[in-house]
Design a protein that fits this description.
The complex is a heterodimer of chains A (251) and B (151). Chain A is mainly α and 251 residues long. In chain A, 68% of the residues lie in helices and 6% in strands. Chain A has two domains: 4-111, no CATH class; 118-250, no CATH class. Chain A contains ten helices and three strands, in the order ααβββαααααααα. Chain A has a three-stranded antiparallel β-sheet, with helices on one face. Chain A is elongated and about 75 Å long. Chain B is built from six helices and no strands. The chains are: A mainly alpha (251), B mainly alpha (151). Chains A and B meet through α3, α5, α8, α9 and α10 of A and α1, α4, α5 and α6 of B.
Chain lengths: 251, 151
């Protein structure tokens, strides 16, 4: 028989891990609070107190163990993990899995990352750049060169963020590469309009997750985390903008 | 705008929305729905602009439609709402105006740049406000729905 202290510890561990995984991968704060409170409630804790911020989580439940902190150190965009935590939480609510299984699944999820294969992501980057260039600018002849430039820019972003781990710098470098390639492409006669090529090619770098979450967080009353994400989106946008501006300045 | 151009635009929006979803690692079974919602939001925006409604109103209502449709999809597929509304937002991003702003600033034409800056701010504000409004609609619907169920 599990002692109640161990049980409380497991509840806290599970809820905190679930919350950390969700914030790390780009969930809005309200969903994290909701999921963690549900986990605690479904696991049998009478009450739970939560303090969720974009850089850390504090949680206490009524029981023998005290409140615990879980820092959130890195932030990436992997919406599949949020979806998986969501599914696990639903299964736990309907008693399809036990708390221990839930915790094990979460630890496993935390350790593995199941992204699409690299080549699929490369094709996706091309398919964001080219079609959006056509949608925004109606410049059909430049479709192919935009796909190529967008792909190369995205590869630079991907590799740099893998090895340097400062997202703003990777975005800046990718924007510079995109600007250079677009200008070079038009001068070699591969494209007609460098402006259109650049507009399409930077689209894979658009910080869609922080923008959306910022609005949702502010609306839900998270007046610390919402603006923080807004700043994140703004800095990303500024990094891309400076990269492009630098290239344009020198040409 | 000819019909062919329009068809190309719609297909481009659908493909780009799904591809953006792939970059964010959205689960496979949510991708198609995200693409459809993206097209829906873009169509609302496009028709309002075509009929002389202006960019701001177009983006506002486009964002409202995306928000409401995303919640519906989230209920239906039992998945988080952000899987649908984040990629669907991408075709509304004011990329062209933002670029013109950067370009004019870089070339020292500050007056022209400020015009575009204002446009970018207004369009982003409209999208944000559109999401806000959609949240309002969603909450009202939930309230009404719950009261209906009770009786």
């Amino acid at each position: 028989m599990q002692s109640s202290k161990d049980r409380d510890q497991l509840i806290l561990h599970t809820a905190l891990t679930a919350g950390r995984i969700m914030i790390e991968n780009g969930s809005e704060i309200e969903r994290v609070e909701d999921t963690m409170a549900r986990i605690a409630k479904n696991a049998g804790a009478r009450t739970s107190q939560l303090f969720v911020m974009i850089t850390g989580i504090l949680m206490a439940i009524n029981g023998e163990v005290g409140a615990q902190i879980e820092p959130v150190k890195r932030r990436t965009f992997d919406l599949e993990k949020i979806s998986v935590v969501n599914d696990l939480s639903r299964k736990f609510a309907t008693h399809d899995i036990t708390l221990q299984e839930f915790a094990d699944h979460l630890d496993h999820l935390d350790a593995t990352s199941k992204y699409f294969p690299f080549w699929v992501q490369v094709i996706a980057a091309a398919l964001v750049s080219g079609p959006l260039e056509v949608v925004f600018r109606h410049n059909l002849p430049d479709f192919w060169i935009t796909c190529v430039v967008g792909t190369l820019g995205w590869i630079v972003y991907y590799l740099l963020s893998k090895y340097v781990r400062i997202r703003f710098l990777s975005e800046f470098a990718a924007a510079v590469v995109i600007g250079l390639l677009a200008v070079l492409g038009t001068q070699l006669g591969l494209g007609n309009n460098a402006d259109d090529i650049i507009i399409g090619s930077v689209m894979p770098l658009v910080p869609g997750v922080p923008i959306t979450n910022s609005v949702r967080d502010i609306l839900a009353g998270n007046l610390v985390s919402g603006p923080a994400r807004g700043v994140e989106a703004l800095v990303s946008a500024a990094a891309i903008g400076f990269g492009i501006a630098m290239v344009l300045q020198f040409w | 705008m000819t019909v062919i151009e329009f068809v190309i635009e719609v297909i481009g929006t659908y493909v780009a929305t799904i591809a953006f979803g792939v970059l964010l690692n959205i689960p496979r079974r949510a991708l198609n729905m995200g693409g459809l919602i993206g097209v829906l939001g873009y169509l609302v925006y496009r028709f309002i602009v075509l009929w002389g409604g202006g960019y701001v109103i177009g983006n506002l209502l486009g964002a409202v439609v995306i928000g409401v449709a995303s919640l519906q999809a989230a209920r239906w597929k039992k998945m988080p709402m952000i899987l649908f509304n984040i990629p669907a937002l991408v075709p509304l991003v004011p990329g062209g105006q933002a670029y013109e702003m950067i370009k004019n600033f870089a070339l020292g034409q500050n007056n022209q740049a400020l015009v575009f800056l204002l446009q970018v701010v207004m369009i982003s504000g409209a999208i944000a406000f559109g999401f806000l409004l959609s949240e309002l609609v969603n909450r009202l619907r939930q309230r009404v729905w719950r009261q209906h169920k009770r009786f």
